[in-house]
Amino acid sequence: EGKTIDLITVFEGVGKVKSGSMTEAELERMEECACPGCGSCAGMFTANSMNCLSEALGLSLPGNGTIPAPTSARIRLAKDAGMQVMRLVEKNICPRDIVTEKSVANGVTVDMALGCSTNTVLHLPAIFREAELDLTLDIFDNISRKTPNLCRLSPAGPHHIADLHEAGGIPAVMNELAASGRIELDVMTVTGRTLGENLEALKPAILRPEVIRTVAEPYSHEGGIAILKGNLALDGAVVKQSAVAPEMMQRTGVARVFEGEEDAVSAIMGNRIKAGDVVVIRNEGPVGGPGMREMLTPTSAISGLGLGGEVALLTDGRFSGGTRGAAIGHISPE
Questions:
Q1: Do the Cβ atoms of 323 and 296 come closer than 8 Å?
Q2: CA 106, CA 300: separation in Å to the nearest integer?
Q3: Average pLDDT of the segment spanning 150-172
Q4: Could you give the C-alpha distances from 14 to 9, 11, 285, in angstroms and in order?
Q5: Which stretch of 163-172, 221-230, 273-282, 289-298 has the lowest confidence by average pLDDT?
Q6: Cβ 312 vs Cβ 228: under 8 Å
Q7: Is the pLDDT score of 41 beyond 90?
Q8: Arithmetic mean of pLDDT, 261-271
Q9: What pLDDT, on a 0 to 100 scale, did the predictor assign at position 183?
Q10: 298 preceded by cis ω (within 30°)?
């Protein structure tokens, strides 16, 4: 029908069927079209977020974050990666030569510029912990406050990873950030050269300015992810602020508290959640869950029912990279 869709479009379609704005037949057709081939789901969701950030950290070859899966370029990249591993062994370049305090800053900076999944706030600290480096919520917060958001990829906007690739990919984003001194260029990468040397050789440019904006004209002057603190989140919480509707940035509502995801979903799909409510889902954190499963079903249902600009959701659990709306997760100390 001429519409660009992805996996999250299907998830939100379930809520649309419930609300009567979409038929079962339309949803089935959408399901058949959403993931037509190999590769990960098409937006800036968790898999693609980490793929892009592995490139930003220097842990994968240039292009790895965005080259579409069903292309010869991806096959060539895979072969090049295998050959490069052997060269790194010969040169005795190890992961800890690449994962440093400077690359920590680069990774989080690109995270904020791209508007990646909130799951990066779990995955990046785990990676750096292996290198005996500490990546705290305060570091995320500080970098977010001074990093402009240059991209609005799905679920925050209409563009997808293939669009980002056509626009110049991660090298173009990093080059734009580097021009304003926001990227450390003297860090080693898996190419065996520094990031600065890689960018000099690639000479990346922004080819689609509607996909990658400049630092001078960003989507917003702060990063895609925000760290929040308050009386409900003494040790912090996380929100993908680039995917929050402007009218939801400040909101007062009635708290509707649920002791688990299933009860919340039942209330949402049963039309017991109304505009202005704030859904609170407890006991979904690392201990309470246990395991901190993602709350994609309730957030997608809220959006699908047309309540994404009117209902907020708070949880000690986490979210899918495809979650959008006023969804605040990782509420700590849990």
A1: yes
A2: 31
A3: 98
A4: 9, 6, 25
A5: 289-298
A6: no
A7: no
A8: 97
A9: 98
A10: no
Residue whose C-alpha is closest to residue 250's, from 264, 239, 261, 234: 239
Question: Residues 115-146: pLDDT tens digits?
Answer: 999 999 999 999 999 999 999 999 999 999 99
Spatial distance between the Cα atoms of 113 and 256, rounded to a whole number of angstroms = 33
Q: Which residues are catalytically annotated? A: 320
Amino acid letter, 77: L
Could you read off the pLDDT of 94-111 as tens digits, one per residue?
999 999 999 999 999 999
Round the average pLDDT of the chain to a whole number and report it. 96
The upper half-sphere exposure of residue 248, i.e. CA atoms within 13 Å in the direction of its Cβ, equals 23
- CA distances to 10, 41, 45, 225 from 6, rounded to whole Å, are 7, 7, 10, 22
93, 198, 324 from 321: Cα distances, Å: 32, 29, 8
pLDDT in tens, 15-37: 999 999 999 999 999 999 988 88
Q: What does the alpha-carbon distance between residue 289 and residue 267 come to, in Å, rounded to a whole number? A: 19
Greatest alpha-carbon pair distance for the chain in Å reads 63
**What pLDDT, on the 0 to 100 scale, is given for residue 35?**
84
Could you tell me the domains of the chain?
46-202 (no CATH), 226-329 (3.50.30.80)
Q: Which two tokens stand for residue 77?
A: 């990249």
Nearest to 327, CA basis, from 243, 258, 219: 243
Q: Which helix (H) or strand (E) holds 251?
A: none
Identify residue 315 by its one-letter amino acid code: T
- DSSP one-letter string for 203-234: ----S-TTTS--SSS-SBSS-S-EEEEETTEE
Cis, bond preceding 290 (omega within 30 deg of 0): yes
Length of the chain: 334
86 burial type by CB count under 10 A (0-12 exposed, 13-18 middle, 19+ buried): exposed
Residue ranges of the alpha helices (H) in the chain? 7-19, 24-34, 46-56, 72-91, 95-98, 101-114, 120-130, 137-146, 161-167, 169-179, 195-202, 261-269, 296-304
